[in-house]
Amino acid sequence: MSGIIGYIGDTSAVRVILDGLRRLEYRGYDSAGLATVCDGELFVCRQVGTLDQLDEQIRAQAVPGSAGIGHIRWATHGVPAHENTHPHTDAGDRIAVVHNGIVENYAALKKKLSSRGVRFRSETDSEIIAQLIGFYLKRGAETLEHAVHCALMDLKGNYAIAVLDKHNPEKLLAARSGSPMMVGIGEREMFVTSDAPAIIPYTRRVIFLDDYQVAVVGRSGAVITNLSGNVVDRQESVIDWDVTEAQKEGYPYFMLKEIHEQPRMIKKILLLKLDFKRLHLKLEELQAIKQKLSAAHQIIIQACGSSYHAGLIGREIFEYFSGIHTDVEVSSEFRYRDLTAGTDCLVLSISQSGESGDTLAAVRRAKQKGMSTLSLCNVVGSSISRESDSVLYLQAGPEIGVASTKSFTAQLFNLYLIAIFLGMMKRIIKRELKDSLIKELTFIPSLLKKVLGEEPLIEAIAHKYAGYRDIFCVGRGINYPCALEGAHKLREIAGEHASAYPAGELKHGPIALVDETVACVCIAPKSQTYDKMVSTMQKIRARNGRVIAIAGEGDEEIGKYADDVIFVPVVQEIFSPLVVSVALQLFAYHFAVKRGREIDRPKHLAKSVMVE
Ligand code: F6R
Questions:
Q1: Is the pLDDT of residue 498 over 90?
Q2: What is the DSSP string of 298-346?
Q3: Which residue segment(s) compose the domain that 528 sits in?
Q4: How far apart are the first and last CA of the chain?
Q5: Cα(489) to centroid(ligand 1), Å
Q6: What are phi and psi of 329, to 5 degrees?
Q7: Average pLDDT along the chain
Q8: Residues 65 and 35 in one domain
């Protein structure tokens, strides 16, 4: 889960590479390095610690060259140490390689090369790639490309790599299998990167590589081949993200910035997906697969983490609006299950990054079983979006904070749009109802603004409870998954124990843990189970637990049963997750700030998890 950038052009490679690495800093890293080539020499700089330290080292050394590769590392094999930092070189110091992913068979390959006299210098799995390329070149591979193809054919696991060769200063090579990699096309300059934000200031024109493809990149273009060396035709795509979207714009953390972006983001989604005059949904992606959708008698939503929680809310929404039976599965389980559903089942995969390894594997499995696959992704051109039969993009813009916030809300919003579309298609929703539902959705941006306006109060409440031993989040019906997501955010960002329960389950066990050291966030907007929720709150208070209620504005009674109340705008119960989730995001954020946590780089977590 590292980041890669490569550059070849007319300007100083180190400046572009360092700038790109800074844009990937949010991924969290423990070391960084780069390599350039100039006058037949390879220059390699590696540094454990911050990018500023790497910058200092580069200034001291005055690293030349207008072609190079860089890497920020989040250690998987081998501790953060100088020798384990990328780029890795081959034994002859001819080749430099940066790698993202895991080479599963590196131990066997290392043994093989060691027995032939190759000396290894790191504990990483990545070094084997540089050593293999060097080995094949020494053994007589005719070209760098040929040596890279041979090396890649030896690997098991996943990789995105960029390769630099001091004997071929006019080109960079990049390849992928299971980890993202794209080529950026500029004006007499070209880039390779694992993540679009690294190159957005320079170009938005990209070619996404597919698995087992190799890009040979020169100053004015790239040729893409497969591992047999045959040229493959790849379409160019345009990334429509704004440079400012990948900057903090005065906020202390990306997470807070992204929470505040949500009203604007929903407005943008509405503009793109709605004909305001006719209150008509413009979901061309779904129109194109209308036949498959109308044949679907069952939907399985599969996703991980926060996206899974969005899926649980999606089930309620789909069944409510379209009447289609919907199941929700965690991808890592779904991918290994005996699938009994038939070909009339639509598998909807939800993923912000579009790269979660388990979700991708489950898409492949569903396709093998003949099921239709639709994905809801944020990152354009990501693996899941490309491998699914069809894709609906979230249009949330780049999400940099490790914790999902705006992408979660965008997932929910898109799920409402899909469900209303399905409801119309299945003739469950009549035109008048569709018009009133859509009107209600157009109010969401201003309602989210209102929730954000409550931030000072939410901050005060979060600070008040930041010292508690344990936080419970409880909800019912469509707000139970909101409770799951609220607890998930607290665990991720605050690094504290938090658990979520359906309110009705509390009395079947978890209530045994409630005492004055436990604070319970009780999600209680007006709903068909409101009275039951109030009764749960009373049970918690009877055991000295503290109650923080999230309730609808104007609910004057709720204060009697809660220690503190966060009021959110009143909406139909089915839409309540939109307002409730934003309040919970602010609560988790301020709770974590009070705890002194590294908000954008939570411990042990990475933004996209491609490995199993
Ligand atoms: C939560 C979070 C993770 C992701 C999960 C799935 O804040 O960031 O739980 O939701 O790893 O990631 P995607 O949606 O990219 O598949």
A1: yes
A2: EEEEEE-HHHHHHHHHHHHHHHHHH--EEEEEEHHHHTTS-----TTEE
A3: 448-599
A4: 12
A5: 11
A6: -130, 145
A7: 93
A8: yes
How much distance in Å is there from the Cα of 610 to the middle of ligand 1? 11
Q: Is residue 105 part of a domain?
A: yes
pTM > 0.90: yes or no? no
Query: Tens digits of per-residue pLDDT, 73-126?
Result: 876 666 778 899 999 999 999 999 999 988 999 999 999 999 999 999 999 999
47 lines ligand 1 (CB under 6 A): no
Domain boundary among the residues 224, 239, 254 is at 239
Residues 170 and 131 in one domain: yes
Å from CA of 247 to ligand 1 middle: 21
Tell me which residue of 82, 81, 87, 123 sits closest to 106, measured CA to CA: 123
* Mean pLDDT score, 160-188: 96
- Closest of 608, 141, 26, 552 to residue 355, by C-alpha: 608
Amino acid at 26: Y
Asked if residue 609 belongs to a domain, the reply is no
**Higher-confidence position of 452 and 179:** 452
pLDDT over 90 for what percent of the chain?
A: 80
Q: Which of 253, 255, 307 to mutate to test the pocket of ligand 1 (most atoms within 8 A of CB)?
A: 307
pLDDT at 48: 92
Instruction: Please report the pLDDT score of residue 604 as a whole number.
Output: 67
Whether residue 304 has its Cβ less than 6 Å from ligand 1: yes
Q: Is 164 helix (H, G, I), strand (E, B) or coil?
A: strand
Rounded Cα–Cα distance for residues 500 and 489 (Å): 11
Distance 304 CA to ligand 1 centre (A): 6
User: Which is the closest atom of ligand 1 to the Cα of 353?
Assistant: 15
Which of the listed residues 391, 409, 442 is the one where a domain comes to its end? 442
Which protein residue has the closest C-alpha to ligand 1 atom 13?
A: 351
Q: Is the CB–ligand 1 distance for residue 447 below 6 Å?
A: no
Same domain, 306 and 430: yes
> What is the CA(609)–ligand 1 centre distance, in A?
8
Q: Is the CB of 213 under 6 A from ligand 1?
A: no
Question: For 300-320, what is each residue's pLDDT tens digit?
Answer: 999 999 999 999 999 999 999
Q: Residue range 151-159: average pLDDT?
A: 95
- 549/522 same-domain check: yes
Q: What's residue 49's pLDDT? A: 85
Q: Is the pLDDT of residue 128 over 90?
A: yes
Report the nearest-CA residue for atom 9 of ligand 1: 305
Is the confidence at residue 243, as pLDDT, over 80? no
pLDDT by residue (tens digit) across 23-34?
Answer: 887 665 788 999
What's the whole-number mean pLDDT along residues 341-357? 91
What is the C-alpha separation between 58 and 513, in angstroms, rounded? Answer: 55
Residue 407 CA, closest ligand 1 atom number: 14
Q: How confident is the model at residue 606 (pLDDT cuts 50, 70, 90)?
A: low
CB-based burial, 478-493: b 16+ in 10 Å, e otherwise: bbbbbbbbbbbbbbbb
**What b-and-e string marks burial along 534-561, b requiring 16 or more CB atoms within 10 Å of the CB?**
bebbebbbeeebbbbbbbbeebeebeeb
What domain count does the chain have?
3
* CATH code of the domain covering residue 523: 3.40.50.10490
Q: How far apart are CA 231 and CA 364, in angstroms?
A: 25
Flag whether pLDDT at 612 surpasses 80.
no
